[in-house]
């Protein structure tokens, strides 16, 4: 039902009494059928009329079929809509308004049934052409506006048919043409839905086209982030980065922050000026994304300290001195650990004193290096606190 909403709205503008002149009993019965107040009764009488007069060259057979095509009556099937509509077109001599109504209904039902989609596209194109000509000849602005809306409906049904047929580029173009006329948000929802389907099917280039349309019109977090993701998947990393940042400015989101951090991290390999910005977005991701939290923090920390050559040197120095201290302590314990001081010779006492001084000196150096490391860690932790403050995290 959703797919026929716009078509139904437009067709409502053109509903009229289809009563051309006709003589004979057939005329009276036709008028009786067309003026029946109840749609179900009208449909029943028109079907009876066609069973009696159809195919016999009677006037209004075309309009009787056209009415049964566009009239909503109880128990009506898509097959009936298609049968009556195509018969009305075959008979011809319909006014532009009725012809467009029939074409819209045919295109809509063929598409919904997945039947002869090329014909559905063709019927929709006929609506656009017919309505465009009628608009040029419209006697007043009100009529011209009504025909303009019919043009929009034609573009819409053409977009639907192309979408079903897998012509996504054509579908998107027609959705845009329809939206530019009708300004109906349902159309943009259709484009967004198409984009999501294409993205999930890994047709990222087609998805990017759809999301570009929704982003240009809606320009909200969802539309921008989806567009960025599709561009990212297409390998258009610089464009993706631009739109990820736009999305993040609209809503602080962990996945978006992580993707920004990853794309910026690639740039740091050639340009270190991106490092601080990369760390910032990775820290945002560490607090906003449950999925990427640990990895984002690990990457941010690694990138931060990779730029601190003195810190990394101190890490190596600390490891070396710790190993040296362990070796010296082990040697001391093995040599003097089980001896009492009064049992030591003067030479051994001298060795003990020297080794203790060496151990103390090493420990002092280790403590100093650890203090220097802590100072650098404090700077990194300060960055973390800044991000927490920006996010309102206590």
- What CATH first level of one domain would be assigned? Mainly Alpha
* Helical residues, percent: over 70%
Question: What is the number of E strands?
Answer: 0
How much of the residues is beta strand, in percent?
under 5%
Distance between the termini: 50 Å
CATH architecture classification name of one domain: Alpha Horseshoe
CATH topology of one domain: Serine Threonine Protein Phosphatase 5, Tetratricopeptide repeat
Structural class: mainly alpha
Low-confidence stretches: 9-23
The CATH superfamily of one domain is known as Tetratricopeptide repeat domain
What is the ordering of alpha helices and beta strands? HHHHHHHHHHHHHHHHHH
Biggest sheet features: none
Arithmetic mean of pLDDT? 87
Q: Please state the CA-atom Rg, rounded to the nearest Å.
A: 39 Å
Number of helices: 18
The coarse overall form would be rod-shaped
Polypeptide structure, described:
The chain starts with a helix and ends with a helix. It is built from 18 helices and no strands. It has helices spanning 5-12, 25-34, 39-53, 61-70, 78-91, 96-113, 117-136, 141-165, 168-182, 185-200, 204-218, 221-233, 237-250, 254-268, 275-288, 293-306, 309-336, 346-391. Helix 7 packs antiparallel against helix 8. The longest helix is centred in the last third of the chain and has 46 residues, at 346-391.
Task: Using brief descriptors, characterize the structure shown.
mainly alpha, Serine Threonine Protein Phosphatase 5, Tetratricopeptide repeat, rod-shaped, 394 residues
């Amino acid at each position: 039902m959703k797919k026929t909403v716009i078509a139904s709205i437009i067709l409502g503008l053109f509903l009229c009494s289809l009563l051309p002149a006709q003589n004979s009993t057939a005329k009276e019965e036709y008028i009786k059928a067309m003026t029946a107040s109840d749609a179900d009764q009208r449909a029943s009488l028109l079907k009876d009329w066609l069973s009696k007069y159809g195919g016999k060259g009677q006037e209004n057979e075309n309009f009787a079929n056209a009415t049964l095509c566009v009239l909503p009556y109880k128990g009506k099937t898509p097959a009936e809509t298609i049968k009556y509509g195509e018969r009305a077109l075959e008979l011809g001599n319909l006014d532009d308004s009725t012809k467009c109504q029939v074409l819209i209904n045919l295109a809509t039902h063929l598409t919904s049934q997945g039947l002869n989609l090329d014909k559905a596209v063709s019927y929709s194109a006929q609506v656009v052409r017919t309505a465009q000509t009628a608009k040029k000849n419209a006697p007043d602005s009100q009529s011209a506006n009504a025909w303009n809306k019919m043009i929009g409906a034609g573009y819409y049904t053409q977009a639907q048919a192309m979408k079903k047929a897998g012509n996504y580029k054509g579908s998107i173009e027609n959705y845009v043409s329809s939206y530019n006329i009708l300004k109906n948000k349902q159309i943009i929802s259709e484009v967004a839905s198409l984009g999501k389907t294409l993205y999930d099917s890994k047709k990222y280039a087609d998805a990017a086209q759809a999301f570009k349309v929704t982003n240009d019109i809606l320009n909200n977090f969802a539309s921008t982030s989806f567009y960025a993701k599709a561009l990212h998947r297409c390998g258009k990393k610089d464009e993706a980065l631009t739109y990820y940042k736009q999305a993040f400015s609209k809503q602080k989101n962990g996945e978006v922050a992580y993707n920004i951090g990853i794309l910026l991290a690639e740039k740091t390999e050639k340009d270190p000026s991106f490092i601080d910005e990369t760390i910032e977005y990775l820290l945002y991701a560490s607090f906003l994304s449950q999925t990427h939290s640990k990895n984002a923090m690990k990457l941010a920390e690694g990138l931060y300290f990779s730029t601190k050559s003195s810190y990394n040197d101190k890490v190596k120095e600390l490891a070396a001195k710790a190993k040296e201290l362990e070796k010296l302590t082990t040697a001391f314990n093995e040599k003097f650990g089980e001896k009492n001081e009064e049992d030591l010779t003067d030479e051994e006492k001298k060795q003990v004193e020297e080794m203790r001084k060496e151990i103390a000196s090493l420990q002092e150096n280790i403590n100093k290096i650890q203090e220097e490391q802590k100072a650098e860690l404090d700077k990194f932790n300060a960055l973390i606190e800044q991000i927490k403050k920006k996010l309102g995290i206590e």
